[in-house]
Amino acid sequence: MNAACPYALYLGRLAPNSQRSIASQLNSIADLLRWPEKKREMMYHKIDFQQASHIKALLIANGWSARSINRAMTAIRSIVGVAVMSGMAPEMQLVQLRAISKVSHGAHDGKPLSVKQVQTLFAHLKQNTSVLGIRNYAVLATLLGTGLRRSELVALLLQDYVAGSALIVRKGKGNKSRTVHLPEWTHDALNEWIVLRGKHKGYLFHRVARGGSIKHDTHLSSCAVYSLIRKSLSAIGIEGVSPHDLRRTFITRLLEQNVDLNTVRQMAGHADISTTIMYDKRSEKVMQQAASLLSYKL
After folding, report:
1. Is 216 a catalytic residue?
2. β strands within the chain, DSSP E
3. Could you tell me the residue range of the domain that residue 256 belongs to?
């Protein structure tokens, strides 16, 4: 990475966890735009009003949440801002980018998967018994069984797995740590992957090369997880689902099973219960059922 480029200067001001998350988002955007990997770091600060508007529309079309889109657009504006201060971009470019409106949260309310869709997804993944298939099954089982953010998943180390019990998230949002307890089907999937992975120190999830060799020196990237989720869901006919929708699925399913809101908040790693409420995507039918249970024994 060129330390003098606006992209690097901007990331350098962020906390380590935010650096990984923002870099992953920007890489995903560059992938959508088919930018060459070796040149993309010097391309972000050249984004103008027309291209930024195109990026915003592209992210909406690809099912990104409003929160993720707004965060990505803020990062782009900030990189251009660094370029302006460094004399590498005109000030008018930044002024024009600031004119692009935020995406309202109603523009993409999220699409939690139904129980039937989750069952179909795992039935599809189970068919692939290769090393890659077993790893992919474990990744999806971990996301849907714990509600972890992508950045939290890819930062997990082997030592963070308490066999048959829990995962220790050491690099959560805001650099907060927490213990995430596992349902039996998730730790079964993890155990099957770890038998293949071996006891090598390092990241829990690694890249698997063609032919099935596990690359212990390369951890699974957030961008790769994004691609895995989209491809796996597309294969069973589900389009337009963002990776964060798996987190919505986890939270919504817990609430559907009558787990109290504060417990769900703790399991999701939310500091504020109002954030958890935003993830609640239970249907109108649930409220109808709740109303039917209300009785004063009149």
Report:
1. no
2. 161-162, 166-169, 178-181, 206-208, 214-219
3. 113-282
- Spatial distance between the Cα atoms of 49 and 51, rounded to a whole number of angstroms: 6
pLDDT digits (tens, 9 = 90+) for 98-154: 999 998 865 445 678 999 999 999 999 999 999 999 999 999 999 999 999 888 999
Which of 67, 173, 207, 216 does the annotation list as catalytic?
173
**Whether residue 80 is found in the same domain as residue 125:** no
Q: 34-77 pLDDT, tens per residue?
A: 999 889 999 999 999 999 999 999 888 877 878 889 999 999 99
Q: Is 279 considered catalytic here?
A: yes
Query: What's the number of domains the chain is made of?
Result: 2
Q: What pTM was estimated for this model as a whole?
A: 0.68
Whether 149 and 213 share a structural domain: yes
Please identify which of the residues 149, 197, 206, 265 carries the catalytic annotation.
149
Asked if residue 69 and residue 121 are part of one domain, the reply reads: no
289 within some domain: no
Annotated catalytic residue 270: yes
